[in-house]
Write a structure and sequence with these properties.
Elements (H helix, E strand, L loop, with lengths): L11 H29 L1 H4 L10
Length: 55
């Protein structure tokens, strides 16, 4: 019998943890780019447009 033929067990908790960390890093990278764009040009990057009212 060869010992290397043992079935490899999949650790589900480790997979969830790695997936969570990867998604967290992706979210962090996206937030860094959005914040950098906001700092670079705050008026163009903002979602709320404040137009002066005529009243």
């Amino acid at each position: 019998m060869d010992d290397s033929s043992q079935p490899s067990t999949v650790d589900v908790d480790k997979g969830f943890a790695i997936t969570f960390v990867v998604l967290l890093f992706l979210f962090l990278i996206v937030m860094i780019f959005r914040c950098a764009k906001l700092v670079k040009n705050p008026y163009k990057a903002s979602f709320i447009t404040t137009e002066p009212s005529l009243s």
